[in-house]
Amino acid sequence: MSNLLIEIGNTALKAAFSDGMTLGKTFRYQGEKVMDFIRTILQKERPAVLVVASAYPISPVDEDFLRGECQHLILLDASHKELLTARSLPPYLSYDRAASILAARYLFRGKGCTIVDFGTTLTIDHTDEAGMYRGGTISLGCRTRFKALNRYSKTLPLLNSPEMKGLSPLSLEGSMVSGVVSGMLFEIEGYTRLNPDNIVVFTGGDANFFAKRMKISIFVICNLVLMGLALIADDYVRKMDQ
Fold it and tell me: Which of 10, 66, 95, 107 has the fewest CB neighbours in a 10 Å radius?
C-alpha cells in the first residue's frame, strides 16, 4: 500500500503517492476548494500513511476526515511541531523548509548543504556536515517582489514572470525584471559564499530559471519538499514494522 504526501502551500497544493522514497505522479491544484481536491485524490487509493503539511492550520473537522481516509495520519502545521523538534529542527521553521532540510540530509549525507527555495518567499537554509541546522534567511520571492513594486508604486506595472524575453534593459519592464532578478542572484550568491564548501540545492517554481544564471554548480530538485515528506512517511512505516 502506498503513502500519500500532500503539501498545502501559500498559493498552491502539491501531492504525490510514494513507495518508500520513490515518488509517483505529482498532482497540483491552485484554488480555494483544497479539501475537495484532496477528496478526489483519496478516491484513487487509500494510503497507508497520509502526510499533510500545511501552511495554515488544519481544522478539527478536516483532521477527522483525513484520519478516516488512511491507516495513519501525520500532520505538519502550526499546531503539530513535534516532528521538527524530534529531528533536531527548531519549531519556528515552516513545514516546507523543514521537509526540504530533511530531504537534503538524506540525499547528501555527510555534506553540508545550502538549500534555496523559490516560492512566495525566498528561503535560504544551511546545514553542516552532520546534518545539523545552522540557520537561514527569509525574504520576498520573485513574484512577490513584482507585486510589491506594483502595489507600493503609482507608476510601475504588475509583472508576473522573471523570464520575459525580448525586453530591452532601456525599457521600464526590462529594468524591473533586471532589478528583481539581479537582486535575487546577488542575494543568493552572497549567502552561498558564507559556506563555500556546501552543496547548493535549488527547489521551488523558479529553481531552474535561477540555476541557469548561477556561476557555481547547482543541484535542482523540484520536488524536494515532497521527498522530505516521503522520508517522514517511510520512517513511520519502518518504526511500525519493528
Answer: 10
